[in-house]
Amino acid sequence: MGKRVDNILIIEDIIFVIEFKVGQNSYDTTSINQLIDYVLDLKNFHEGSHNKKLVPILVATDAPLFENQFNVKNNVYLPFKVNQFNFNKVINQILEIMPTKNNLDVDTWESSKYKPTPTIVEAAQALYRGHNVEEISRHGADKINLSLTSSCLNEIIDFSKSNNKKSICFVTGVPGAGKTLAGLNVANGRMNTDKEEQAVFLSGNGPLVQVLREALAQDKYKHLIEIGQKIKIDDARRDANSFIQNIHHFRDEYLKDSSAPIEKVVVFDEAQRAWNTKETSRFIKGRGGDPNFNMSEPQFLISVMDRHQDWCCIVCLIGGGQEINKGEAGIQEWLIALKKFFSDWDIYYSNAICSNPNYLPNVELNSWLLKNGTKKENLHLSTCIRSFRAMQLSEFVEKLLNLNKLEAQRVFEKLNNKYPIVISRDLKKCKQWLKEKAMGNERTGILISSSARRMRSLGLDAENGIRSNSGKDKIAQWFLNSKDDIRSSSFLELPATQFAVQGLELDGVCLAWGGDLSFQDNNWVHKYFTGNSWKYHNTEEKKRKDI
Fold it and tell me: Per mean pLDDT, which range of 237-251, 313-327, 343-357 is the poorest?
């Protein structure tokens, strides 16, 4: 993942993780956090280091002498601070104080598997630098799964290109399985202008687009400056903007332009959230567009790609049951459009779509897809790779919301060993707890439901926090800025709503639970605040989207 520690020194059974800052005259916070990140990376992702003594040492050659003490946080030794004169002395002191057992088998340690679990931002940066999905995925079943999905998509694209076919692929996966990562990998790999190929990654998730664009631009700018190339940050942003685009901007552009897009491969992230006919028509007419417009968003987007005279491929990344906003129609709207208007297109779908009602509850469309599409098992990602310490977190939440108390307790007890969950009525204590738990550059933040309108008394206002329409700078700063920046999530001042964080990740969260979802008489009660009082949600659809 681009992390390169300067030295690993193994003496007996102690692994010294050493970072040199030659010429530096202070032990600055940035260097300390960098070193802690290296240690956490080894501890969490390198099999040979999981249960070993990892001792970080920061060598700032010109810094003053520092009186070191043994400090441990979350079972991790905090960095020892040394200069060029006492480096040797401190290592000997550590060896004298720390109890040692058998010598570490260095060859076994060195050959141990490295299983990184990158955040979506880290993964996007690595792909954008030219790495492929195999290089940044964990080893084992999850790596194979991602590789097979990427290979399957590329085979379909190659077949479509060779045979002048227009095709659409529906990729599914369990939460955190890497659907977005697979899509980014395909889009990045298909940006071959010399082969008459161009690709784009589209998402209706505005915050995700804004954060990834800015992260890619900053990473490219920093990398090129480090190797001596001149580049302006605005140029780096322009390149990132062409690779990742907002699906609504793409749609609006081709409402005005009747030509075929330059892209032959288009990846739609969270395609289940595309709008139905009613919502799309309302939106376009409301902005002074065609008063006779009468298409769903999937129908229009397919029609745009259908303008190509030869071949093209659409990749739809689908989350089951994740239509969380008004007018979001799920996969069935894509299938309705294909059935009615684009019967000549080749359809490829994952085995989960017809077997799991969360994806396609419509029985008639399910039957039609079985007859008219091609099932590909490798288009389903079955292994969660995102939250390695919280593999069962989504299961716990599901059991909790479904009031399966015994099962929720069982999962919680397993989960809480690696992923602690605590409850408090004191916001100040919550913030302090998060700060104590966070190490290195781990990100924390406060999350709040957009309907939790009565948290203002605690200084948490959903309307004035980070929302999906907060503006690209505000959202990117919240996710990317350092923890000492008041605009950063880790400063624990500005809360973000569920719409602002979907698809992005935090290491530690303060979930500020409001009155819109409360537990009464052994059941969940769904409410919304209007005027100066709470009202009850009555329809199942509103209740489901509220959760």
Answer: 313-327
